[in-house]
Amino acid sequence: MNTREPLLSIEGLHVEVEDKPILRGVDLIVPAGEVHALMGPNGSGKSTLSSVLMGHPSYRVTAGHIRFKGQEITEMPPDERARLGIFLAFQYPVEVGGVSVLNFLRTALGAVRGEELPVREFRKLVEQKLGELGMDMSFARRNLNEGFSGGEKKRNEVLQLALLQPALAILDETDSGLDIDGIMLVADAVNRLRGEENGVLVITHYMRILSYLKPDRVHVMLAGQVVQSGGPELAAQLERAGYEGLRGANPAREQPRA
User: Fold this and answer.
1) Domain ranges of the chain
2) Cβ neighbours of residue 146 under 8 Å, at least 6 residues apart?
3) Residues 6+ apart with CB under 8 A from 4
4) Do 55 and 63 meet the contact criterion of CB atoms below 8 Å apart?
5) 96-100 and 143-144: which strand pairing?
6) How wide is the angle at C-alpha 70 spanned by C-alphas 106 and 30, nearest 5°?
7) Residue 113: which of 102, 123, 122, 124 has the closest Cα?
8) Which distant-in-sequence residues (6+ apart) come within 8 Å of 199 by Cβ?
9) Do 129 and 165 touch, CB atoms closer than 8 A?
């Protein structure tokens, strides 16, 4: 029997924004070596949870705990969480003019590792990851997300994921707006990350990316709570019947914002 601490453990998490309750007692465990999907309609609190896990200062934790590898991180600042190995792929990545993708990646990798790789070794690593993703070095020379299409922004997030190799990857609706090729690219990057020491939490509305990821567990969030968990068949059930049945079994309170 596996007695190791879960990679991520969330217990009784309550969160407010501007004194408005958003998360209302979230309980969730992601063991190392597993891919978990978190599904739910707009306004259920999924994106709020991803931001809280990364330590966004706009969200106030009023109760509960977040533990990563057994360590309490509920009050830990975002940079320390990143150094521990938590990565968040944003739903809407921001543009940063004057900073190339290459320079951003080198800074991020150095911050996570605690030391910078020699330039030649770093460039070789980036070229390798770009090649695995079917991209070339011209992409890395562009300014970070500046003038990028939606698909290119998502590709940049996937490149960061491939390079940083985090212990826990949180993907906040990374599949949103992607065509089938983009979805397969994201799924391939996540599948490459799979390992006994890594975990992935995929936040999504839709079944389509899960057919390529094949998650170990699926969780459903409604009204700021995880109301049901199960195997991959739960996602297929939601695809057929939607969330209305679950709402009936779990009467909705005021819907929090995502």
Assistant:
1) 8-249
2) 95, 96, 97
3) 31, 32
4) no
5) antiparallel
6) 80
7) 122
8) 7, 8, 30, 31, 32, 33, 34, 35, 36, 167, 168, 169
9) no
Burial class (CB in 10 A: 0-12, 13-18, 19+), 234: buried
* Segment of 95-104, 218-227, 246-255 carrying the highest mean pLDDT: 218-227
Q: How far apart are CA 232 and CA 95, in angstroms?
A: 35
Local confidence band at 94 (pLDDT 50, 70, 90 cut-offs):
confident
Neighbours of 135 (CB within 10 A): 19
Q: What is the DSSP letter of 95?
A: P
How confident is the model over 97-144, as pLDDT tens digits?
889 999 999 999 998 888 888 999 999 999 999 988 888 899 999 999
Third-level CATH fold of 8-249: Rossmann fold (3.40.50)
User: Taking the chain, what is the end-to-end CA distance rounded to the nearest angstrom?
Assistant: 37
CA 216 – CA 96 distance, rounded (Å):
36
d(CA 228, CA 108): 36
